[in-house]
Design brief:
There is one protein chain. With 283 residues, the chain is mainly α. Helix 8 packs antiparallel against helix 9. The radius of gyration is 21 Å and the shape is globular.
């Protein structure tokens, strides 16, 4: 977190934008190599029959899984704020077509990486007999040792790089996006631009995260469950606001989605609301 804050203080958004390109390239290459090695090295087969979860534990895991797969829904807000920030430093302003292409590449790429991580879990972690710790550091050590044991010593560095870049990219993007979103929200609520609003929220997030990690370090599994479940349960709220904004008066008619995308969006919103209600009633 400290390194992430230093990067953001020194280089601001421009450094973040340039740095993330290299981090994501390293993350993607190392993850794909790890998946390919796992696919060619494994001798076991696994069942891909669809199972509808029935118990509270299974349902909770599914909701937690969906909460961040492939990304939390509020990432749309982050992307919008970054697009505006990018235009402040870029010589050529971002066109609508380029912005949509950039979003699609990021979202589809995240989805593909999510599938890769799911495959790695199925090929290496599933039926391994390993009892995984809820402690973050212990879990990371178990994960790397398990991959090394199953895929060979050469895979140690590959999975270590994939795991590190996954967490570092998540940390640095969140350390930038959340304060920007909070600063923008504060401005809208008080109808006033706060001079050091971004820096206030980044310090607030840094201290808050440090305190949470200090108390939850021994039970990271619980912390992740809380975060992902809350993320999923708030998804309908973000989906409705996104839909209202993109089809409302603030978006020019020529930039609004067509009828098919609107239908797909409404179906998605109904799914999110229905799934959330199902989960809450199943508790």
């Amino acid at each position: 977190m400290f390194i992430s804050v230093i990067f953001l203080v020194v280089g601001k958004y421009k450094l973040l934008d340039n740095l993330m390109k290299y981090i994501i390239i390293i993350l993607t290459i190392s993850t794909i190599i790890a998946v390919c090695v796992a696919l060619f090295s494994t001798k076991d087969t696994f069942d891909v029959t669809q199972i509808i979860p029935s118990g509270t534990v299974e349902l909770t895991f599914l909701i937690a899984f969906l909460g961040w797969m492939p990304a939390p829904l509020d990432v749309s807000i982050w992307h919008s704020i970054w697009s505006v920030e990018k235009d402040k430093t870029a010589v050529i302003k971002t066109k609508r077509k380029d912005a949509i292409f950039d979003f699609n590449v990021g979202y589809i790429g995240t989805l593909c990486l999510g599938i890769c991580f799911l495959l790695l879990g199925a090929l290496v972690m599933y039926k391994s007999g390993e009892s995984f710790s809820n402690k973050g550091g212990v879990f990371a050590s178990q994960l790397i040792k398990l991959y090394t044991k199953n895929l060979g010593n050469f895979s140690h560095i590959i999975i270590a790089i994939a795991a590190f870049t996954t967490m570092f990219s998540t940390t640095i993007t969140t350390m930038d996006a959340s304060p920007r979103a909070m600063n923008r929200s504060t401005k809208l609520l008080v109808n006033k631009e706060l001079k050091f609003g971004y820096w206030f929220w980044i310090i607030f997030l840094f201290i808050g995260t440090f305190l949470i990690l200090n108390y939850f370090m021994d039970d990271m599994g619980l912390l992740i469950k809380i975060a992902t479940i809350l993320s999923f349960l708030t998804a309908p709220f973000y989906a409705i606001l996104n839909f209202k904004l993109i089809t409302g008066k603030h978006t020019p008619k020529e930039h609004q989605p067509g009828i098919y995308l609107r239908i797909l969006s409404i179906v998605g919103i109904v799914f999110l609301i229905g799934f959330s209600i199902w989960y809450l009633l199943s508790l």
